[in-house]
């Protein structure tokens, strides 16, 4: 049995499951301050016997094992979690291998193992929620270099009718600053869910997301792109995004069938936690 943690900005999901990605027990705890949340997490795993634990975490995080801060959440705006050594804390309690990666890399792994990208050796998982992030499986492995990718903060062309300055505290009008849930809410002065029937909202959203996807396709050439997160619950976005991706690429590269190339998660809200199980499994099989 493996253990899995999806560490999110609003909640922590903990699970135990097998090497096929089946979840046997699961619990959720709100993300408050580290001491409080981790107490719940630890007591969950004390009830189970696991041979490894995988953690998919909100970030940025330190994933480079050669780095002194390996296993920490680093510069998060959630200040009580900044520089929090989550892997060390778990290691102290449980003497098992611990896999550690971003929430979106975990989700990409989960989707490629048993979800919408099953059987493919490359895919992207993009979340459009409170923030925007993407994880990538390339040649069967998670993409990692100096650190993990931060694909939500790329620069995009501004929509000609968008005066909104952008929410990103670092870059203002990067992709996340213009297209994550909070940007939609501030630009249109209503929550995304209340704007469902406003065509111009989703046209503009697709305008930004399609630019990002074009760049990811040109750089990484993934075999499938899975899009999840709260904002993507607006299903009308999928055809709009596909159409704008085709328009932007303008015939330059041969395109796969976009209906089956840009898709919602096969695992629904379980992509991240399933992927975290796979992070545990990979850590044992290394
Ligand atoms: N059905 C919906 N339609 C449109 N927007 C939505 C919907 N549900 C949630 N959102 C927006 O998505 C954002 C929350 O994202 P999500 O539900 O993915 O949670 P999260 O886990 O906090 O986000 P993140 O993945 O960045 O950690 C909020 O800005 C919210 O307004
Ligand atoms: Zn940014």
UniProtKB/TrEMBL annotation:
Pfam families: ROK (PF00480). Transmembrane segments: none annotated. It catalyses: D-fructose + ATP = D-fructose 6-phosphate + ADP + H(+). InterPro entries: ATPase_NBD (IPR043129), Carb_Metab_Reg_Kinase/Isom (IPR051804), ROK (IPR000600), ROK_cs (IPR049874). Its cofactor is Mg(2+). Keywords: ATP-binding, Carbohydrate metabolism, Kinase, Magnesium, Metal-binding, Nucleotide-binding, Transferase, Zinc. It comes from the Bacteria. Its EC number is 2.7.1.4. GO terms for molecular function: ATP binding; fructokinase activity; metal ion binding. PANTHER family: FRUCTOKINASE, TRANSCRIPTIONAL REPRESSOR MPRA. Belongs to the ROK (NagC/XylR) family. This is fructokinase. It comes from Domibacillus enclensis. The lineage of its organism: Bacteria, Bacillati, Bacillota, Bacilli, Bacillales.
């Amino acid at each position: 049995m493996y253990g899995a943690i999806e560490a999110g900005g609003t909640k922590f999901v903990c699970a135990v499951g097998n090497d096929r990605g089946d979840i046997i027990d699961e619990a959720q705890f709100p993300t408050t301050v580290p001491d409080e949340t981790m107490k719940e997490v630890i007591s969950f795993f004390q009830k189970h016997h696991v041979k490894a634990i995988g953690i998919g975490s909100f970030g940025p995080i330190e994933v480079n094992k050669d780095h002194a801060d390996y296993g920490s959440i680093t510069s998060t705006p959630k200040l009580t979690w900044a520089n929090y050594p989550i892997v060390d804390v778990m290691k102290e309690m449980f003497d098992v291998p611990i896999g550690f990666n971003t929430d979106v890399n975990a989700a990409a792994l989960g989707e490629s193992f048993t979800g919408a990208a099953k059987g493919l050796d490359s895919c992207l998982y993009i979340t459009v929620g409170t923030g925007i992030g993407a994880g990538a499986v390339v040649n069967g492995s998670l993409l990692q270099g100096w650190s993990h990718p931060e694909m939500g903060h790329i620069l995009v062309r501004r929509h000609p009718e968008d005066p909104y300055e952008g929410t990103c505290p670092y870059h203002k009008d990067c992709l996340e600053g213009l297209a994550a849930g909070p940007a939609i809410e501030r630009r249109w002065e209503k929550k995304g869910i209340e704007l469902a029937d406003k065509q111009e909202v989703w046209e503009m959203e697709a305008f930004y997301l399609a630019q990002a996807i074009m760049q990811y396709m040109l750089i990484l050439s993934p075999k499938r792109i899975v899009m999840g997160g709260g904002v993507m619950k607006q299903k009308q976005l999928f055809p709009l995004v596909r159409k704008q991706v085709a328009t932007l690429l303008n015939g330059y590269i041969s395109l796969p069938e976009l209906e089956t190339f840009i898709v919602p998660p096969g695992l629904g809200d379980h992509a991240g936690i399933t992927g975290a199980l796979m992070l545990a499994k990979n850590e044992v099989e290394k």
